[in-house]
Amino acid sequence: MMKINLDENNIVILTIDCEKKPMNVIDEEFVRTFHQKIEEITSDDKNTGLILTSARDEFVAGGDLEMLRSIKSAEDCVQLTSLLHKSLRKIETWGKPAVAALTGTTLGGGYELALGCHHRICINKPKAKIGLPEVTLGLLPGGGGTQRLPRMIGLQNSLLYLTTGKQLDPQKALEAGLIDALAENEGELINKAVEFIKSHPEISQPWDDKKFKLPGGEVQSPRGYQVIPASTAMMNEKTHGNYLAPRNILCAVYEGCQVPIDQGLEIELRYFTELVLNQSTKNMIRTLFYSINECNKGEARPKNVPESKIGKVGILGAGMMGSGIAYATAMAGIPCVMKDISQETLDRGKAYSAKVLDKLIERGRCTPEKKEQVLSLISTTTDASDMKGCDLVIEAVIEDRGLKAKVTAESEAVMPEEGIFASNTSTLPITGLATESKRPEQFIGLHFFSPVDKMPLVEIIMGEKTQDKALAMCIDYVRAIKKTPIVVNDGRGFYTSRVFTTYVSEGINLISEGVSPALIENAGKMIGMPVGPLAVADEVSIDLIYHIIKQTMEDLGVESVDKATLDLSTRFVEELGRLGRKAGKGFYEYPTDGKKFLSPELGKLYPLNKIQPELEEVKDRLLYIQSIETLRCLEENILTTTRDADVGSIMGWGFPAWTGGTIGFVEYIGPQNFKQRCLELEKKFGKRFSPPKILDGKESFYN
């Protein structure tokens, strides 16, 4: 794991190589071995310095999250983390120079190892990343990052990285002061490290000088008085108190930077331990790291099907969805042909890709040559026979069964026998659409989210007759275009549309009951949803909600739809023409020369109750209804894993990440506590809050 070499100058080169791991990561064995090696190195007076480096292309990618998940007590967390703190303080106070020679990506705990050295040099690899991303998983840097970084680059600059998890390439890290020098290759890296050590035979950290002052101003200074309150206000505005990690980071920095470094490390450790043991953190790590990685690696892919070679993709429809799918396909280097009924529509569709690429060029993330290469992979046609030779055809026409049946037949007539046909429908059952196919076993759902170029999730829907080959090809395709696949079974609205609809419907129920629209919208944002449910309705368009609910009622009966949503959407569409943003009015007004605002007409249409509900009750209704519907999807086998439920909810429609997902929220509350609250809400607001039977006797959905 760690090898010691001594050069002719008696400089110790400690090389990290976690041979049993795919990348260098800090786990319990690492911490104990590192401590042993540092004790050995610093106790030998003959040693003149230390170079800490790696045998891998990366330096250290961070802490081992599996280790953190296994910690069950505060005592265990304190004992292990304190040992790392002790090792780094030994390096700092040794009196001899220590250089972190970074071979590439250096994140989290890896960067904290570098901070514990007196000098940091990195090989200039453009794709390498340097930073402290712990906050994105509900953690804080527990190896001294909240104490050393502010002491190195100042309060304001350090909080930018500590509270956002922002990562920089080596060149930008140098400019920001996160590292001290660059090298072009490994040889130069070690040579520069040796030069630094030889020119600084005796050294200590600036913060170990009694006269040390924080760069840019102390916590208790005019500058500090500006930075800390402003950072706290910004944090509260963004997180609404739902995320513990940013708060703990600010507390650790604020308290720790007013005392000597050793006391600061103890303060950091206290806040770190609280996060490690917190259920929200555990849920975030499970979903945002493990579950997403499993999806991205194709965990749901049938193992008995050879990897698909997709030579060409057909896309039916050049609207917003079809254009976005064409862009994502071409960006992956896969040729595609986009079909629509007019060349004018096709030209607009292809222009969408050009527009997205132009924006990337402006940001320095694409070149004109790359743009031309991508656009050359997108061909257009008005002739269905051009679907010939397509291994995968994706239908992205309007939600009309007749039209979908027509384009299915046209494509299947010319597609290869082994070709797969996928529908991008967001609501219509795949099994029903597949009845118009001559090969329903090769018919599947591929539900993209808008805008396709930005949204990372694709929901793959298995029809009743869909076979493994179709699933395997679609997972291979989704991974090829660098999106995250989840797999669900067929049903109206599948998983994502079905559950997300409950958020909008509950907002409509609330307004129908005389609850203040502002209270509803603020409650939605305060639980961590991107926007309130009424704003979502306007964006989706109220007439679309109206048509979907009418279709559902025709297919399944009036008892299958939410009455408040039916009544309000009917009134808004048939009587008032309030269709949402596209019509300039819905729940909000959309002036041409200003920001949108909640319509004053709502108070006339749905008079406010004199006594408004408690904020917490409104928040509960908006959160619980989504998790309840998710549990029903599990009961009905629409969902087959909690992994897909959690990943789909966060990445698909922005369910609050602090919960770990819709099932994560149940776990956060505790299944039986969740059930009890459902019963209370059911008694007050109706059967839609009835606790699903899957909760009976359940202690955990993750065991």
Provide a short characterization of the protein structure:
This protein is an alpha/beta fold.
Mind explaining what this structure looks like?
This protein has 703 residues and is an alpha/beta fold. It folds into 3 domains: 2-277, 2-enoyl-CoA Hydratase, Chain A, domain 1, CATH 3.90.226.10; 313-491, 3-Layer(aba) Sandwich (Rossmann fold); 497-637 and 670-695, N-(1-d-carboxylethyl)-l-norvaline Dehydrogenase, domain 2 (Orthogonal Bundle). The chain has an 8-stranded mixed β-sheet, sandwiched between helices. It has a 6-stranded mixed β-sheet with strand order 1-2-3-4-6-9, with helices on both faces. Strand 2 (11-16), helix 1 (28-42) and strand 3 form a beta-alpha-beta unit. The longest helix has 21 residues, at 615-635. It is globular.
- Low-pLDDT runs of 5+ residues are none
How many domains, as an integer?
3
Provide the CATH superfamily of the largest domain: 2-enoyl-CoA Hydratase, Chain A, domain 1
Strand arrangement in the largest pleated sheet: 12-11-10-13-14-15-16-17
Q: What is the tally of helical segments?
A: 28
Tell me, rounded to a whole number, the average pLDDT.
Answer: 96
Q: Summarize the main sheet.
A: 8 strands, mixed
Looking at the structure, what is the overall shape? globular
Strand content: 5-15%
Q: Please count the beta strands (DSSP E, at least 2 residues each).
A: 19
Top-tier CATH class of the largest domain? Alpha Beta
Question: Considering DSSP H and I runs of 4 or more, what fraction of the residues is helical?
Answer: 40-55%
Please state the CA-atom Rg, rounded to the nearest Å: 28 Å
Termini separation (Å)?
32 Å
CATH topology of the largest domain: 2-enoyl-CoA Hydratase, Chain A, domain 1
